[in-house]
Amino acid sequence: MQNPSTMKSGAAALQGHGLVVADGALGRAMVRLLLDQAPALTLTLTGRTPDPRPDTRQLLQQAPDRLAYGILDLCRDEQLADLETHLDRLDRPLRLVFNASGWLHGPAPHQTPEKRLAALQRSALHQSFAINAWGPVLLAQVVEPMLKRSGQAWFASLSARVGSIGDNHLGGWYSYRAAKAAQNQLLKTVALEWRRTMPGVCVACLHPGTTDSPLSKPFQARVPPAKLFTPDFSAAALLGVLLGLTPQDSGGFWAWDGQPIPW
C-alpha cells in the first residue's frame, strides 16, 4: 500500500473533476477522502434514488461548491445518457472515475450467493451481470469522450478477489464470481484500447478487502476483526493504490494492499 503521505500529496495534485458512482458506504467514504485530500477537485456522487441518503445530504451541505449529486442506475441507458450530458457540460477535465457499485445479494428468490449449482437461477445471473459486469463497461463508454480531453486520468472499478479464476479454490458464489470475472475481462479490454487512444489513462480493477457495508454484512461472522475494514480505511487504501499506478499499469487487477491479483 502506498505511503499515506505520498497518497496525500498525490491526491492534492488532482485538479479537475472526479466521478464517484454509488452512494454507498465505500462511495461516500471515497468522497469524504477526496473532499479532504484533493482540494482542487470538484466531485459528482451518484445514487440510484432521487433523494440522497442522510450522510450524503450532510456532505452536500458541507461542500456545496465542490460536490454535486446525480441519479444513476447503471442498468438504465437513459440515466447513463444523462450522466454523459452532465459531465460534458463541465468546464473541468475529468481526472478520476471511481465505480463503487456492486450487487451480491437481494430479495428472494436470489437472496444469498449460491453455495451449490442447484441453487443457481437465471434471474440472479442476470442481475449480477447487469450491475457487476455490464454496468462498469457501459460507464467506461459514457466517460470516454470526457477522458479524451483530460490527459492523465484514472478509471477504477471495484472487483473482488472471488472474481479471480486463478484464485478460486472454494467454488460456490456462481453468479457473483462469474460477473466479477467478466468485469475484469471487459475492463482489461478497455484498457488495451485506451492504451492506444488515450495513453494517459490508467484503468484498474480494485479489490477492497472485506469492507463493513450492507453488501458484506450477512457474511461478516467468519471474518477476523483485523480483516474487516471500515469504509474510510478501504477508501484510503484504494486511493493510495490507484494514485501509485501509472498508465503503464493500466489493465491490472489490484488488492487494497497494492498486491496484484491473478486473473
In short:
The chain is an alpha/beta fold.
Key features of this structure:
alpha/beta, 9 strands, 41% helix, 17% strand
**How many DSSP helices?**
7
**Fraction in beta strands:** 15-25%
Helical amount among residues, as a percent range?
A: 40-55%
As a whole number of angstroms, the C-alpha radius of gyration is 17 Å
Strand order of the largest sheet: 3-2-1-4-5-6-9
Question: How does the overall form come out from the CA principal axes?
Answer: globular
| Mean of all residue-level pLDDT scores | 92
Q: How far is the N terminus from the C terminus?
A: 20 Å
* Main sheet record: 7 strands, parallel
SS elements, strand count: 9
Encode the helix/strand succession as letters. Answer: HEHEHEHEHEHEEEHE
Structural class: alpha/beta
List segments where confidence is low: pLDDT < 50 over at least 5 consecutive residues: none
Report on the architecture of this protein:
There is one protein chain. The chain has 263 residues and is an alpha/beta fold. 41% of the residues lie in helices and 17% in strands. The chain contains seven helices and nine strands; from the N terminus they run αβαβαβαβαβαβββαβ. The protein has helices at residues 4-12, 25-37, 54-62, 77-89, 122-148, 174-197, 231-243, and strands spanning 16-21, 41-47, 67-71, 94-99, 153-158, 201-207, 210-211, 228-229, 252-255. The strands form two sheets. Strands 3-2-1-4-5-6-9 form a seven-stranded parallel beta sheet, with helices on both faces. A two-stranded parallel ribbon has the order 7-8. Helix 2 (25-37) crosses helix 7 (231-243) and helix 5 (122-148) packs parallel to helix 6 (174-197). The radius of gyration is 17 Å and the shape is globular. The model has no long low-confidence stretch (mean pLDDT 92).
